[in-house]
Amino acid sequence: MSGAHPHNEDHLTSSAMLQDIVIGLSDGLTVPFALAAGLSGAVQSSGLVITAGLAEVVAGSIAMGLGGYLAGRTEIEHYASELAREHREVLEVPDRERAEVDELLAEMGLSPATRAAAVHELTANEEQWVQFMMRYELGLEKPDPKQAPKSAATISIAYAVGGLIPLSAYFVTDTPSQGLLWSAVITLVCLLVFGYFKSRMTGQPPVWGAFKMAGTGALAAAAAFFVARQFDQS
Q1: What is the pLDDT of residues 111-159, one digit of tens each?
Q2: What is the pTM for the complete model shown?
Q3: H, E, C per residue of the chain
């Protein structure tokens, strides 16, 4: 039994990583695709589309990674702030905090006698008491301090990978219009597949999720293309 080890942290890490991959890939597939489509309607050189697209992928991956890092740091700071507040309340208003523990246990269906024993046991140790309030009153789990840089790296890499997919067609075609055609085919297929599996993993209708993601990418690209074409004609 001494060798048993809980797997909660592994599950939490995997879930967070999956969420970060989804965030990075979904934006990486749609934003550079829309940019390349818009440029294809305004320029005659695939080289310009590739240069601008790569610049956007680099800038976008950095920005997305930074956003993921700041979100992770905000979660850590929020948890630390609430933890300090709970410690303060346990010391300053212990009777009110004990009453809140009793209310939480009552909501769980415990009998009065069992609640009285549980409240006495839980509040005998300050750290145990505070952790109970953090989890069951506030619904907060202690965040992994290493998660912020992990999220930044995962989102950034996923965005870059997703962004290179629509640009890949322009490397092997002669004109922006040809590049756009193949880019649209490749990207829409990827969006359909990605949307399908993303929806399955999140418990949503997979087919609808696939078409919704592909439709979003197609609308963004079409809007960028026609806006760029209008400016080019003017």
Answers
A1: 888 888 888 888 888 888 888 888 888 887 888 888 888 889 999 999 9
A2: 0.73
A3: CCCCCCCHHHHHHHHHHHHHHHHHHHHHHHHHHHHHHHHHCCCCCHHHHHHHHHHHHHHHHHHHHHHHHHHHHHHHHHHHHHHHHHHHHHHHCHHHHHHHHHHHHHHCCCCHHHHHHHHHHHCCCHHHHHHHHHHHHCCCCCCCCCHHHHHHHHHHHHHHHHHHHHHHHHHCCCCHHHHHHHHHHHHHHHHHHHHHHHHHHCCCCHHHHHHHHHHHHHHHHHHHHHHHHHHHHC
